[in-house]
């Protein structure tokens, strides 16, 4: 983690508006954000939230309609054309669909960003081979993109993004087209590059697992705004926004379990959340005994967010003192939601 905080990316009240059919869309709505050197910062949100536009602001593909974008202490608006080109090279980018050139070999793909640099052919080749080694693909240097798996293609794209020794790597849904196992291997690679090279990584995703696996901090984005942000475990310990809760629920498969269980049309269904360093689910047994309730556990799961454990349980309670039992659970620090209410509300 970052010891001496040094801001490398600062957005100050950044706004991006687009015009469409004579009406104005605000894709990024007064976002202020500071990302420190060496940090892995994740932005999570559903499709259309404005994530890609935000990340395009960071790597200078998008000019803000208002507000400031400061990268490496340089205000984007103050740069002349040459400085701007230079600044862009210091930010690598990877995408969901890799964007490799199919008619060129893997080596040539990685060499491509170096073509404009003052390097001899041999130096360029050596640099590209070293990058392929870094992503553990040197043996595929002479292959073509079509011969590679999705995970291997993304490794090539990462090597290419690092060709100009960037300080920052931005990732726009880089693992969204990959299966879970391959996703994990790419995330582990990004984590290693963060540690080995001190690379600052900003990644956007709609998958909470990505945030959980490698991010230090997270911002939750909705309708152009960062509605909540902080250390991953802190945000998940005290989610302030419904949307944040939804992402947490996705990770522990609560939504699937809920829709399955709701079909059974049971009464007195409750969703319990245990949040802490350890989760003490024995409290449910205590409650059942104390209030002579039958507590039928229909679903239970535990997941880890950084140093935070989140446990969930779906319970069907029966007996005369259900309300007292629920109050007892709440007194013990368990978050309890009645499921029927939850459904009619949403
Ligand atoms: N070039 C553009 N022109 C017009 N509207 C755009 C453009 N780019 C994005 N938008 C709109 O801005 C909003 C945010 O888009 P985007 O940043 O791609 O969101 P996300 O990456 O979270 O799915 C959407 O409503 C999208 O349609
Ligand atoms: Mg997008």
Automatic annotation (TrEMBL):
Q: Which GO terms describe its biological process?
A: amino acid transport
Residue ranges spanning the membrane: these are: none
A molecular function (GO) held by this record is: ATP hydrolysis activity
As recorded in UniProt, coiled-coil segments are none
- Cite the ABC transporter domain residue spans from the record: 9-248
* Keywords recorded for this protein, A-Z: Amino-acid transport, ATP-binding, Cell membrane, Membrane, Nucleotide-binding, Translocase, Transport
Going by the entry's taxonomy, the superkingdom of the source organism is recorded as: Bacteria
| Matches recorded under PANTHER family | AMINO ACID IMPORT ATP-BINDING PROTEIN, METHIONINE IMPORT ATP-BINDING PROTEIN METN
What is this protein identified as?
Answer: ABC transporter domain-containing protein
Which organism's genome codes for this protein? Enterococcus hermanniensis
């Amino acid at each position: 983690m970052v010891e001496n905080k040094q801001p490398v990316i600062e957005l100050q009240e950044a706004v991006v508006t687009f015009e469409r059919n004579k009406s104005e869309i605000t894709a990024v709505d007064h976002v202020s954000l500071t990302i420190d050197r060496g940090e892995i910062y994740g932005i999570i949100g559903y499709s259309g939230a404005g994530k890609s536009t935000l990340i395009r602001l960071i790597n200078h593909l998008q000019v803000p309609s208002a507000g400031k974008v400061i990268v490496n202490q340089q205000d984007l608006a103050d740069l002349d054309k040459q400085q701007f080109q230079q600044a862009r090279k210091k930010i690598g980018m990877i995408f969901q669909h890799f964007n490799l050139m199919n008619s060129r070999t893997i080596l040539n793909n990685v060499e491509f960003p170096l073509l404009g640099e003052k390097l001899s052919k041999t130096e360029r080749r050596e640099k590209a081979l070293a990058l392929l080694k870094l992503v553990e693909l040197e043996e595929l240097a002479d292959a073509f993109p079509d011969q590679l798996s999705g995970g291997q293609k993304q490794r090539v794209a990462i090597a290419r993004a690092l060709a100009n020794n960037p300080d920052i790597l931005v990732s726009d849904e880089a693992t969204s087209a990959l299966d879970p196992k391959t996703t994990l291997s790419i995330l582990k690679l990004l984590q290693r590059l963060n540690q080995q090279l001190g690379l600052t990584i900003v990644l956007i995703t709609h998958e909470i697992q990505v945030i959980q696996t490698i991010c230090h901090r997270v911002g939750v984005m909705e309708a152009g705004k960062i509605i909540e942000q902080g250390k991953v475990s802190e945000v998940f310990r005290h989610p302030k926004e419904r949307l944040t809760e939804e992402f947490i629920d996705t990770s522990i498969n609560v939504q699937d379990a809920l829709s399955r269980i709701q079909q059974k049309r049971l009464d007195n269904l409750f969703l319990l959340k245990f949040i802490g360093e350890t989760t003490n689910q024995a409290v449910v047994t205590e409650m059942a005994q104390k209030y002579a309730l039958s507590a039928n556990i229909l679903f239970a799961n535990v997941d880890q967010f950084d140093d935070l454990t989140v446990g969930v349980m779906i319970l069907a309670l029966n007996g005369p003192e259900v309300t007292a039992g629920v109050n007892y659970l709440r007194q013990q620090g368990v978050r309890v939601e009645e499921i029927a209410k939850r459904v009619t509300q949403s």
